[in-house]
Amino acid sequence: MEQERHDISPQNIEGITGTTVLLKKVYKEDKSHALGNGFFIEPDKIVTNVHVLAGASTLTAHCVDTETTYTIEGVIAFDDINDLAVLKIAEEGTPFSPGNSKKVRKGEHVCLLGYRNDKKNRLDGTVYSIQNSGKHIIVKFNITDVQGYSGSPLLNTKGEVIGIICAGGPPVDDGEFIMSTNIASNLLKNLLNETHEVESLDAWLKRSRIYAYVKSSDAYLSRDHGDIKEAIARYDDAIRLNPDLADVYRNRALLMYSLEKRDEYMLNTLSAHKLNRERFNLKRIGLFFSWHLRFIRFSLVLGFQKLIRKLVGENTWFEVQAQVRFRLAKSKIANGKISDVLNIYQAIIDDFTEVINDKPGEEKRKYLDAARNSYKEAIVHLSEVIKKKPKRAVPYYHRGKAKYIFGEFESQHKDLKVTKKLFEGTINDYSEAINRKLKGLYIYNHIGQARHQLAQLESQQGNTEAALTLYQNVISDSDEAIQSEMECDACRSAIHHHRGAAKAALEDYEGAIEDYDMSIKLNPKYAKAYYNRSKAKQALEQHEAAEADLAKAKELEPEIEKRN
């Protein structure tokens, strides 16, 4: 018998009772950033997402409606797989009534209540589907962005909590709607039955499986800024810390797909599918079979790829993959998608580097030549773009970044003459982009990197005067760059770091420490700034402080000594 649909009208939702709170993260330099939301589920317990809390230095919970700030005693329950956390509160708030997420049906009217930019909003939506064996409720909202609402309660028309918002997808239907993922309330009910002794927020945040959420967030930011290589490294860190996060595998898979690494795309997609398994349920039999069909298809394709790889041999497989990616890069250049191309070039070079390191003499030379021919052709293609549009700044930036990628490759393989030429070309192209009034894209950060690399190279070759001039240029460029990047803390942090490194190279260690201090203040998670500040303090024989900085750098990035 079909369930009565008396609960799908939104008219009864006005009388909702329950306290929602705005959660704010406060950094050491007293800069507060709104992270997300939470809500009372019991008089002294607030529910939110793990990812809302992860990375906090200190945290406050504030109800704007009543101008009440609540005292957070610590974490009393959490689910680090499904992104749920329950905070113990010293005071009391009005709890929402928990609903039964098993009764939620497709087409049902729902709403979320949450703060964004200190303003409380109500967003109405419709249940689009129930996924992952009832763990996730997908809701269609008639807005284009739900960023900032994480941790808000999803309510049915009776005012009961049936879900907790945790993510929003890209806009759909020509940008008029967005799909939001919500954690089913029955998972929260189970969690509330497993509460433990209060654990301090500081101690809880140091758990490796919680810190994985920080690495995942770092990866998202790196991807957003176009640094795909860094994003993949951060997703790898997240998987190492917490191998049960399906979204991390899924996001890593998307990056691999963009780089035309289909085998790794398949592996990561399969891992995500396994973690979000659909179990048999008559009410959702379509999703059950759909999940199994997708799983079988991905498994068959991956198995077929492995078979072909084995039949043709690793060398032939690698060469074919490199050619496929290179042709993809050429087609993207032709279509004007140059920013995507740089990530593909980076993948090609990284793969060549890995293969070259494993090959003996003659074979190594063969792959070195192939890599060099690939990037020489790439520079030619980018130069053709510049010829067609010589007044535009962005093509110069892209060509400069490509030269930098290839310069790093050559520096690893000891062709210092070519390396020097490429870094010089990088600086020239970035300078042309700046002359054409290019703003953003971390242009000053990148030109500082290139000057620093070239200065190190000049120093290695005994060209001390040229190196000193370049370090002075880094400092003077940084002075101007910091002013131009006033709105971007991450950019200014990187620029201060480059200026500090240049001062250290000029043996102005006190000046270097001042810049490293500012770099860390702007970005407290910048491991390399701690690492280099440690070296500057060692030079001044501040050994105890240097050891503390080194320990902090290792805490933030355990492999930092190997990478430097």
Write the layout of secondary structure elements.
Elements: E1 20-26, E2 32-42, E3 45-48, H1 50-53, E4 58-63, E5 68-70, E6 72-79, E7 84-89, E8 97-98, E9 109-116, E10 119-131, E11 136-141, E12 153-155, E13 160-172, E14 177-184, H2 185-192, H3 201-205, H4 208-224, H5 228-241, H6 246-258, H7 262-275, H8 285-312, H9 314-334, H10 338-358, H11 361-388, H12 394-412, H13 416-435, H14 443-460, H15 464-484, H16 489-505, H17 509-522, H18 527-539, H19 543-556, H20 560-563
Parallel strand pairs: 8-13
Antiparallel strand pairs: 1-2, 1-4, 2-3, 3-7, 4-5, 6-7, 9-10, 9-12, 10-11, 11-14, 12-13, 13-14
Helix pairs in contact: 4-5, 5-6, 6-7, 7-8, 8-9, 9-10, 9-11, 10-11, 10-12, 11-12, 12-13, 13-14, 14-15, 14-16, 15-16, 16-17, 17-18, 18-19
Measured distance between first and last alpha carbons:
67 Å
If helices are DSSP runs of H or I spanning 4 or more residues, what is the number of helices?
A: 20
Strand order in space, largest sheet: 5-4-1-2-3-7-6
Q: What is the CATH first-level class name of the largest domain?
A: Mainly Beta
Q: What integer is the average pLDDT?
A: 83
Query: How many structural domains?
Result: 3
* Apparent shape: globular
Compute the number of strand runs. 14
Helix share, percent: 55-70%
CATH topology of the largest domain: Thrombin, subunit H
Low-confidence stretches: 1-13, 27-32
Which secondary-structure class do the elements indicate?
alpha+beta
Which range does the strand content fall in? 15-25%
* CATH arch. level architecture of the largest domain: Beta Barrel
**Major sheet, described briefly?**
7 strands, antiparallel
Output the radius of gyration: 26 Å
